[in-house]
Protein backbone atom coordinates (compact mmCIF):
# COMPACT_ATOMS: atom_id res chain seq x y z
CA UNK A 1 0.00 0.00 0.00
CA UNK A 2 1.41 3.42 -0.95
CA UNK A 3 1.99 6.11 1.67
CA UNK A 4 -0.74 8.28 0.09
CA UNK A 5 -3.29 5.48 0.34
CA UNK A 6 -2.23 4.77 3.92
CA UNK A 7 -2.65 8.45 4.80
CA UNK A 8 -6.09 8.55 3.20
CA UNK A 9 -7.13 5.44 5.12
CA UNK A 10 -6.01 6.90 8.45
CA UNK A 11 -7.90 10.12 7.72
CA UNK A 12 -11.06 8.17 7.04
CA UNK A 13 -10.63 6.08 10.18
CA UNK A 14 -10.06 9.21 12.24
CA UNK A 15 -13.09 10.97 10.75
CA UNK A 16 -15.42 8.04 11.31
CA UNK A 17 -14.09 7.53 14.84
CA UNK A 18 -14.82 11.15 15.70
CA UNK A 19 -18.24 10.85 14.09
CA UNK A 20 -19.11 7.73 16.05
CA UNK A 21 -17.88 9.18 19.31
CA UNK A 22 -19.94 12.38 18.96
CA UNK A 23 -23.03 11.22 17.09
CA UNK A 24 -25.23 11.08 20.18
CA UNK A 25 -24.30 14.63 21.14
CA UNK A 26 -24.94 15.82 17.58
CA UNK A 27 -28.40 14.30 17.54
CA UNK A 28 -29.21 15.91 20.88
CA UNK A 29 -28.03 19.30 19.59
CA UNK A 30 -30.09 18.93 16.43
CA UNK A 31 -33.21 17.90 18.33
CA UNK A 32 -32.88 20.92 20.57
CA UNK A 33 -32.82 23.21 17.52
CA UNK A 34 -35.12 21.35 15.16
CA UNK A 35 -37.66 24.21 15.22
CA UNK A 36 -35.33 26.25 13.01
CA UNK A 37 -36.65 26.21 9.43
CA UNK A 38 -34.39 26.47 6.38
CA UNK A 39 -35.64 27.54 2.95
CA UNK A 40 -33.31 27.37 -0.06
CA UNK A 41 -34.14 28.88 -3.44
CA UNK A 42 -33.87 26.63 -6.49
CA UNK A 43 -34.26 27.67 -10.13
CA UNK A 44 -35.14 24.41 -11.82
CA UNK A 45 -38.63 23.69 -10.52
CA UNK A 46 -41.22 23.12 -13.27
CA UNK A 47 -44.60 24.72 -12.65
CA UNK A 48 -47.65 22.50 -12.44
CA UNK A 49 -50.99 23.14 -14.11
CA UNK A 50 -52.18 26.72 -13.47
CA UNK A 51 -49.66 27.07 -10.63
CA UNK A 52 -48.87 30.74 -9.92
CA UNK A 53 -45.24 31.80 -10.09
CA UNK A 54 -45.64 33.33 -6.64
CA UNK A 55 -48.39 34.01 -4.15
CA UNK A 56 -51.48 32.10 -3.07
CA UNK A 57 -54.81 31.81 -4.86
CA UNK A 58 -57.45 33.05 -2.44
CA UNK A 59 -60.47 30.80 -2.13
CA UNK A 60 -63.45 30.00 0.09
CA UNK A 61 -66.47 27.77 0.58
CA UNK A 62 -69.58 29.92 1.02
CA UNK A 63 -72.23 27.76 -0.65
CA UNK A 64 -73.81 26.89 2.71
CA UNK A 65 -73.36 30.29 4.35
CA UNK A 66 -77.02 31.00 5.10
CA UNK A 67 -76.31 34.57 6.25
CA UNK A 68 -75.37 35.55 2.71
CA UNK A 69 -77.38 32.80 0.97
CA UNK A 70 -74.18 31.44 -0.55
CA UNK A 71 -73.68 34.68 -2.48
CA UNK A 72 -70.07 34.78 -3.70
CA UNK A 73 -70.27 38.43 -4.72
CA UNK A 74 -71.55 39.35 -1.27
CA UNK A 75 -68.70 37.43 0.34
CA UNK A 76 -66.17 39.34 -1.75
CA UNK A 77 -67.79 42.60 -0.66
CA UNK A 78 -67.84 41.69 3.04
CA UNK A 79 -64.21 40.58 3.04
CA UNK A 80 -63.08 43.50 0.91
CA UNK A 81 -61.35 41.39 -1.71
CA UNK A 82 -62.22 39.38 -4.77
CA UNK A 83 -61.53 35.67 -4.30
CA UNK A 84 -59.86 33.70 -7.05
CA UNK A 85 -61.92 30.55 -6.53
CA UNK A 86 -64.86 29.08 -4.66
CA UNK A 87 -65.79 25.46 -4.15
CA UNK A 88 -68.78 23.18 -3.98
CA UNK A 89 -69.40 19.54 -3.08
CA UNK A 90 -70.83 17.31 -5.81
CA UNK A 91 -71.66 13.69 -5.15
CA UNK A 92 -70.49 11.37 -7.91
CA UNK A 93 -73.51 10.57 -10.05
CA UNK A 94 -75.23 13.86 -9.25
CA UNK A 95 -76.18 16.32 -12.00
CA UNK A 96 -73.60 18.79 -13.23
CA UNK A 97 -73.81 22.02 -11.14
CA UNK A 98 -74.42 24.30 -14.11
CA UNK A 99 -76.28 27.01 -12.16
CA UNK A 100 -73.40 27.30 -9.69
CA UNK A 101 -70.88 27.44 -12.54
CA UNK A 102 -72.84 30.28 -14.12
CA UNK A 103 -72.86 32.22 -10.83
CA UNK A 104 -69.16 31.53 -10.40
CA UNK A 105 -68.33 32.97 -13.79
CA UNK A 106 -70.24 36.17 -12.93
CA UNK A 107 -67.76 36.87 -10.13
CA UNK A 108 -64.78 35.97 -12.31
CA UNK A 109 -63.67 33.00 -10.21
CA UNK A 110 -62.21 29.60 -10.98
CA UNK A 111 -64.12 26.48 -9.97
CA UNK A 112 -63.14 24.06 -7.23
CA UNK A 113 -65.31 20.94 -7.10
CA UNK A 114 -65.07 18.30 -4.39
CA UNK A 115 -66.22 15.33 -6.50
CA UNK A 116 -67.16 12.58 -4.05
CA UNK A 117 -68.13 8.96 -4.81
CA UNK A 118 -70.26 8.67 -1.69
CA UNK A 119 -71.71 5.34 -2.79
CA UNK A 120 -68.29 3.78 -3.04
CA UNK A 121 -65.65 3.44 -5.73
CA UNK A 122 -67.46 0.82 -7.78
CA UNK A 123 -69.75 3.48 -9.24
CA UNK A 124 -66.76 5.26 -10.82
CA UNK A 125 -66.52 4.07 -14.42
CA UNK A 126 -65.44 5.38 -17.79
CA UNK A 127 -69.00 5.83 -18.95
CA UNK A 128 -71.42 8.39 -20.32
CA UNK A 129 -71.86 10.14 -16.97
CA UNK A 130 -68.18 10.76 -16.36
CA UNK A 131 -67.50 11.74 -19.97
CA UNK A 132 -70.44 14.14 -19.99
CA UNK A 133 -69.34 15.69 -16.68
CA UNK A 134 -65.83 16.19 -18.04
CA UNK A 135 -67.08 17.77 -21.28
CA UNK A 136 -69.22 20.23 -19.33
CA UNK A 137 -66.23 21.18 -17.19
CA UNK A 138 -64.37 21.96 -20.39
CA UNK A 139 -67.29 23.92 -21.78
CA UNK A 140 -67.28 26.06 -18.62
CA UNK A 141 -64.21 27.74 -20.08
CA UNK A 142 -62.57 28.43 -16.72
CA UNK A 143 -59.83 26.68 -14.71
CA UNK A 144 -61.21 23.90 -12.52
CA UNK A 145 -59.69 22.35 -9.41
CA UNK A 146 -61.22 18.86 -9.38
CA UNK A 147 -60.78 17.40 -5.89
CA UNK A 148 -61.78 13.81 -6.51
CA UNK A 149 -62.45 11.50 -3.53
CA UNK A 150 -60.70 13.58 -0.88
CA UNK A 151 -60.01 12.55 2.74
CA UNK A 152 -59.64 8.95 1.62
CA UNK A 153 -57.16 8.40 4.45
CA UNK A 154 -60.03 8.68 6.96
CA UNK A 155 -62.40 5.85 7.74
CA UNK A 156 -65.39 8.22 7.53
CA UNK A 157 -65.43 8.22 3.71
CA UNK A 158 -67.19 5.61 1.56
CA UNK A 159 -64.09 5.24 -0.61
CA UNK A 160 -61.45 4.46 2.03
CA UNK A 161 -59.98 1.11 2.98
CA UNK A 162 -58.81 -0.12 -0.43
CA UNK A 163 -55.80 1.89 -1.67
CA UNK A 164 -55.34 -0.28 -4.76
CA UNK A 165 -58.90 0.27 -5.97
CA UNK A 166 -58.71 3.95 -5.02
CA UNK A 167 -55.62 4.49 -7.16
CA UNK A 168 -57.20 2.61 -10.05
CA UNK A 169 -60.30 4.82 -9.97
CA UNK A 170 -58.31 8.01 -9.48
CA UNK A 171 -56.22 7.25 -12.56
CA UNK A 172 -59.37 6.48 -14.52
CA UNK A 173 -60.86 9.87 -13.67
CA UNK A 174 -57.54 11.58 -14.40
CA UNK A 175 -57.31 10.01 -17.86
CA UNK A 176 -60.88 10.98 -18.76
CA UNK A 177 -60.28 14.56 -17.66
CA UNK A 178 -57.03 14.71 -19.56
CA UNK A 179 -58.84 13.67 -22.73
CA UNK A 180 -62.01 15.71 -22.31
CA UNK A 181 -61.17 18.70 -20.08
CA UNK A 182 -57.65 20.14 -20.35
CA UNK A 183 -58.72 23.01 -18.07
CA UNK A 184 -59.05 20.62 -15.11
CA UNK A 185 -56.43 20.31 -12.38
CA UNK A 186 -56.58 17.02 -10.50
CA UNK A 187 -56.19 17.83 -6.79
CA UNK A 188 -55.36 14.88 -4.55
CA UNK A 189 -56.45 15.91 -1.03
CA UNK A 190 -56.05 14.16 2.32
CA UNK A 191 -57.19 15.04 5.80
CA UNK A 192 -54.55 16.12 8.31
CA UNK A 193 -54.66 12.75 10.00
CA UNK A 194 -54.29 9.84 10.14
CA UNK A 195 -50.91 10.15 8.43
CA UNK A 196 -49.79 6.52 8.56
CA UNK A 197 -51.78 5.46 5.49
CA UNK A 198 -51.53 8.59 3.34
CA UNK A 199 -48.77 7.43 1.03
CA UNK A 200 -50.55 4.17 0.25
CA UNK A 201 -53.29 6.17 -1.51
CA UNK A 202 -51.02 8.38 -3.62
CA UNK A 203 -51.80 7.80 -7.34
CA UNK A 204 -48.33 8.90 -8.52
CA UNK A 205 -46.82 12.15 -9.77
CA UNK A 206 -47.99 11.59 -13.34
CA UNK A 207 -51.62 11.50 -12.20
CA UNK A 208 -51.66 14.41 -9.74
CA UNK A 209 -51.46 18.13 -10.55
CA UNK A 210 -51.82 19.55 -7.03
CA UNK A 211 -51.62 17.97 -3.57
CA UNK A 212 -54.11 19.21 -1.00
CA UNK A 213 -54.83 18.87 2.69
CA UNK A 214 -57.89 19.74 4.81
CA UNK A 215 -57.06 21.41 8.13
CA UNK A 216 -59.41 22.40 10.96
CA UNK A 217 -58.60 24.02 14.27
CA UNK A 218 -61.10 22.95 16.93
CA UNK A 219 -61.25 23.07 20.71
CA UNK A 220 -62.10 19.38 21.01
CA UNK A 221 -61.70 16.52 18.57
CA UNK A 222 -64.92 14.81 17.49
CA UNK A 223 -66.99 16.79 19.98
CA UNK A 224 -65.36 14.85 22.83
CA UNK A 225 -64.61 17.08 25.81
CA UNK A 226 -61.81 14.69 26.83
CA UNK A 227 -59.99 15.18 23.51
CA UNK A 228 -58.61 18.72 23.82
CA UNK A 229 -57.19 20.12 20.58
CA UNK A 230 -56.86 23.83 21.24
CA UNK A 231 -53.06 23.61 21.42
CA UNK A 232 -52.72 22.43 17.81
CA UNK A 233 -50.82 24.75 15.47
CA UNK A 234 -52.44 24.91 12.00
CA UNK A 235 -49.01 25.14 10.39
CA UNK A 236 -47.81 22.02 12.16
CA UNK A 237 -50.95 20.27 10.91
CA UNK A 238 -49.78 21.21 7.43
CA UNK A 239 -46.22 19.94 7.89
CA UNK A 240 -46.56 16.29 6.94
CA UNK A 241 -48.16 16.92 3.56
CA UNK A 242 -45.96 19.93 2.91
CA UNK A 243 -42.70 18.19 3.75
CA UNK A 244 -43.65 15.06 1.81
CA UNK A 245 -44.92 16.59 -1.44
CA UNK A 246 -43.99 20.28 -1.79
CA UNK A 247 -40.74 19.71 -3.67
CA UNK A 248 -42.62 18.20 -6.59
CA UNK A 249 -46.20 19.53 -6.40
CA UNK A 250 -47.91 22.81 -5.49
CA UNK A 251 -49.77 22.49 -2.18
CA UNK A 252 -53.39 23.44 -1.74
CA UNK A 253 -55.12 23.90 1.59
CA UNK A 254 -58.39 22.64 0.20
CA UNK A 255 -60.32 23.42 3.38
CA UNK A 256 -59.35 25.43 6.42
CA UNK A 257 -61.53 26.50 9.30
CA UNK A 258 -61.18 27.62 12.90
CA UNK A 259 -64.12 27.31 15.25
CA UNK A 260 -65.35 30.23 17.34
CA UNK A 261 -68.16 28.34 19.07
CA UNK A 262 -68.59 24.69 19.94
CA UNK A 263 -71.58 22.89 21.40
CA UNK A 264 -69.17 20.52 23.16
CA UNK A 265 -68.91 22.92 26.09
CA UNK A 266 -71.31 25.62 24.86
CA UNK A 267 -68.64 28.35 24.86
CA UNK A 268 -67.47 31.04 22.46
CA UNK A 269 -63.83 31.12 21.32
CA UNK A 270 -63.39 34.26 19.23
CA UNK A 271 -59.78 34.82 20.30
CA UNK A 272 -58.97 31.21 19.49
CA UNK A 273 -60.32 31.55 15.94
CA UNK A 274 -58.52 34.84 15.39
CA UNK A 275 -55.24 33.38 16.62
CA UNK A 276 -55.44 30.30 14.39
CA UNK A 277 -56.58 32.14 11.26
CA UNK A 278 -53.82 34.71 11.73
CA UNK A 279 -51.25 32.01 12.29
CA UNK A 280 -52.24 30.20 9.12
CA UNK A 281 -52.46 33.10 6.68
CA UNK A 282 -49.35 34.90 7.97
CA UNK A 283 -47.40 31.65 8.06
CA UNK A 284 -48.07 30.92 4.40
CA UNK A 285 -46.37 34.16 3.39
CA UNK A 286 -43.21 33.56 5.37
CA UNK A 287 -42.64 29.86 5.99
CA UNK A 288 -44.66 27.85 3.45
CA UNK A 289 -44.05 29.37 0.01
CA UNK A 290 -45.06 26.17 -1.82
CA UNK A 291 -48.66 26.54 -0.66
CA UNK A 292 -50.26 28.07 -3.74
CA UNK A 293 -53.98 28.11 -2.86
CA UNK A 294 -56.13 28.16 0.27
CA UNK A 295 -59.90 27.88 0.78
CA UNK A 296 -61.56 29.11 3.96
CA UNK A 297 -64.55 27.02 5.11
CA UNK A 298 -67.07 29.77 5.82
CA UNK A 299 -69.88 27.68 7.29
CA UNK A 300 -71.79 27.49 10.56
CA UNK A 301 -71.88 23.72 10.96
CA UNK A 302 -74.32 24.06 13.85
CA UNK A 303 -76.92 24.78 11.20
CA UNK A 304 -75.63 23.32 7.95
CA UNK A 305 -73.75 20.12 8.77
CA UNK A 306 -75.35 16.68 8.52
CA UNK A 307 -76.86 15.26 11.69
CA UNK A 308 -74.18 14.10 14.08
CA UNK A 309 -71.65 16.68 12.87
CA UNK A 310 -73.31 19.87 14.10
CA UNK A 311 -70.56 20.72 16.54
CA UNK A 312 -68.60 23.82 15.46
CA UNK A 313 -69.20 27.22 13.93
CA UNK A 314 -66.49 28.12 11.41
CA UNK A 315 -68.32 31.01 9.72
CA UNK A 316 -66.57 34.36 9.56
CA UNK A 317 -69.49 36.39 8.22
CA UNK A 318 -71.41 36.19 11.50
CA UNK A 319 -68.65 37.63 13.68
CA UNK A 320 -67.41 41.18 13.17
CA UNK A 321 -64.01 40.71 14.85
CA UNK A 322 -63.16 37.53 12.97
CA UNK A 323 -64.36 38.97 9.66
CA UNK A 324 -62.18 42.05 10.18
CA UNK A 325 -59.18 39.87 11.01
CA UNK A 326 -59.67 37.77 7.90
CA UNK A 327 -60.14 40.86 5.73
CA UNK A 328 -56.95 42.45 7.02
CA UNK A 329 -54.95 39.27 6.44
CA UNK A 330 -56.08 38.68 2.87
CA UNK A 331 -55.61 42.33 1.87
CA UNK A 332 -51.94 41.52 1.37
CA UNK A 333 -51.20 41.31 -2.39
CA UNK A 334 -49.58 37.93 -1.73
CA UNK A 335 -53.12 36.53 -1.76
CA UNK A 336 -54.20 36.44 -5.38
CA UNK A 337 -57.65 37.37 -6.67
CA UNK A 338 -57.38 35.65 -10.04
CA UNK A 339 -56.13 32.31 -11.33
CA UNK A 340 -53.50 33.19 -13.87
CA UNK A 341 -52.55 31.60 -17.20
CA UNK A 342 -51.47 27.98 -17.40
CA UNK A 343 -47.65 28.03 -17.35
CA UNK A 344 -47.31 24.29 -16.85
CA UNK A 345 -43.77 23.07 -17.43
CA UNK A 346 -42.18 26.52 -17.16
CA UNK A 347 -39.04 26.68 -15.01
CA UNK A 348 -39.57 28.84 -11.93
CA UNK A 349 -37.57 29.90 -8.90
CA UNK A 350 -39.05 28.36 -5.75
CA UNK A 351 -38.05 28.17 -2.11
CA UNK A 352 -37.85 24.58 -0.88
CA UNK A 353 -37.96 23.60 2.77
CA UNK A 354 -34.87 21.62 3.78
CA UNK A 355 -34.99 19.50 6.92
CA UNK A 356 -32.68 16.56 6.27
CA UNK A 357 -28.99 17.42 6.36
CA UNK A 358 -29.32 20.42 8.68
CA UNK A 359 -27.47 20.67 12.00
CA UNK A 360 -27.47 23.64 14.37
CA UNK A 361 -24.47 23.68 16.68
CA UNK A 362 -24.14 26.42 19.28
CA UNK A 363 -26.29 28.76 17.23
CA UNK A 364 -24.45 28.09 13.95
CA UNK A 365 -26.17 26.27 11.11
CA UNK A 366 -24.38 23.57 9.12
CA UNK A 367 -25.56 21.85 5.93
CA UNK A 368 -24.55 18.50 4.52
CA UNK A 369 -22.81 17.89 1.22
CA UNK A 370 -26.06 16.32 -0.03
CA UNK A 371 -27.94 19.60 0.60
CA UNK A 372 -25.28 21.58 -1.25
CA UNK A 373 -25.43 19.25 -4.23
CA UNK A 374 -29.21 18.85 -4.43
CA UNK A 375 -30.47 22.34 -3.69
CA UNK A 376 -27.58 24.65 -4.48
CA UNK A 377 -26.09 22.61 -7.34
CA UNK A 378 -22.63 22.92 -5.81
CA UNK A 379 -19.82 20.40 -6.14
CA UNK A 380 -17.91 19.00 -3.19
CA UNK A 381 -14.32 17.71 -3.40
CA UNK A 382 -12.23 15.96 -0.78
CA UNK A 383 -8.49 16.55 -0.78
CA UNK A 384 -7.29 13.53 1.18
CA UNK A 385 -3.65 14.54 1.06
CA UNK A 386 -4.21 17.90 2.72
CA UNK A 387 -7.27 16.97 4.77
CA UNK A 388 -9.47 19.62 3.17
CA UNK A 389 -12.95 19.86 1.68
CA UNK A 390 -13.70 22.23 -1.21
CA UNK A 391 -17.09 23.48 -2.37
CA UNK A 392 -17.48 25.12 -5.77
CA UNK A 393 -20.23 26.52 -7.96
CA UNK A 394 -19.37 28.15 -11.25
CA UNK A 395 -16.24 30.21 -10.72
CA UNK A 396 -16.77 30.48 -6.96
CA UNK A 397 -14.82 28.20 -4.63
CA UNK A 398 -14.33 27.91 -0.87
CA UNK A 399 -12.06 25.45 0.96
CA UNK A 400 -12.30 24.22 4.56
CA UNK A 401 -9.96 22.29 6.78
CA UNK A 402 -11.53 19.12 8.10
CA UNK A 403 -11.91 19.52 11.84
CA UNK A 404 -13.22 17.17 14.47
CA UNK A 405 -16.83 17.62 15.49
CA UNK A 406 -15.64 18.64 18.96
CA UNK A 407 -13.40 21.39 17.60
CA UNK A 408 -16.18 22.81 15.42
CA UNK A 409 -18.67 22.85 18.29
CA UNK A 410 -16.05 24.71 20.31
CA UNK A 411 -15.97 27.46 17.70
CA UNK A 412 -13.17 26.52 15.34
CA UNK A 413 -13.73 27.34 11.67
CA UNK A 414 -13.96 24.35 9.39
CA UNK A 415 -16.01 21.48 8.08
CA UNK A 416 -16.52 18.17 9.85
CA UNK A 417 -17.58 14.63 9.07
CA UNK A 418 -20.38 12.99 11.02
CA UNK A 419 -21.55 9.43 10.40
CA UNK A 420 -19.84 9.45 7.01
CA UNK A 421 -21.41 12.77 5.89
CA UNK A 422 -19.53 16.05 5.57
CA UNK A 423 -21.09 19.24 7.00
CA UNK A 424 -20.27 22.86 6.20
CA UNK A 425 -21.12 26.22 7.82
CA UNK A 426 -24.10 27.50 5.83
CA UNK A 427 -23.47 31.23 6.06
CA UNK A 428 -19.87 30.98 4.84
CA UNK A 429 -20.74 28.62 2.01
CA UNK A 430 -23.75 30.62 0.82
CA UNK A 431 -21.99 33.97 0.73
CA UNK A 432 -19.02 32.55 -1.15
CA UNK A 433 -20.94 30.73 -3.90
CA UNK A 434 -23.46 33.44 -4.68
CA UNK A 435 -26.36 33.29 -2.21
CA UNK A 436 -27.87 35.75 0.25
CA UNK A 437 -28.95 34.63 3.72
CA UNK A 438 -31.70 36.28 5.73
CA UNK A 439 -32.52 35.32 9.31
CA UNK A 440 -35.97 35.90 10.79
CA UNK A 441 -35.60 35.55 14.54
CA UNK A 442 -39.31 35.76 15.26
CA UNK A 443 -40.11 32.87 12.92
CA UNK A 444 -36.74 31.11 13.47
CA UNK A 445 -36.43 31.01 9.71
CA UNK A 446 -33.30 30.94 7.55
CA UNK A 447 -33.98 31.98 3.96
CA UNK A 448 -31.23 31.29 1.41
CA UNK A 449 -31.83 33.26 -1.79
CA UNK A 450 -30.00 33.39 -5.08
CA UNK A 451 -28.21 36.71 -5.46
CA UNK A 452 -29.33 37.13 -9.06
In words, what does this structure look like?
This protein has helices at 3-32, 72-79, 98-106, 128-140, 163-180, 234-245, 270-286, 301-304, 320-330, 369-375, 405-409, 426-432; strands spanning 37-46, 56-61, 85-91, 110-116, 144-148, 184-191, 210-217, 251-258, 261-262, 267-268, 291-297, 312-313, 335-336, 347-354, 358-361, 364-368, 379-383, 388-393, 396-403, 415-418, 421-425, 435-440, 445-450. With 452 residues, it is an alpha/beta fold. It has 2 domains: 3-45 and 349-450, no CATH class; 48-344, Alpha-Beta Barrel (TIM Barrel). β18 and β19 (396-403) form a beta hairpin. The protein starts with a helix and ends with a strand. Residues 1-33 have low confidence and may be disordered.
In a nutshell, what does this entry contain?
The protein is α/β, with parallel strands linked by helices. The chain has twelve helices and 23 strands.
Amino acid sequence: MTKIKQLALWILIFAFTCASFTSAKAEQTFDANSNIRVLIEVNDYKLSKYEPTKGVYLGAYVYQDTLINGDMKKFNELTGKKHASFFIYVGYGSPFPQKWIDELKKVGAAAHIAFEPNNGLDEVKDDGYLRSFAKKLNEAGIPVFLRFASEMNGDWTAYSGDPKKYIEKWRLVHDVMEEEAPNVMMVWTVFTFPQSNILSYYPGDDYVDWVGVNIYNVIYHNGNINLKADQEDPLELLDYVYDTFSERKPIQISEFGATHYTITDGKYYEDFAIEKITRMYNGLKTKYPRVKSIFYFDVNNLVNAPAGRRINNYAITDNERILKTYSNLISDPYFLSDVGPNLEGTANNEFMVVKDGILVLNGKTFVSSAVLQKYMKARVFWDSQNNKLTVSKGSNTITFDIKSYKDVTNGQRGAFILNGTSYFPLIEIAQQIGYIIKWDGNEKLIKVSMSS
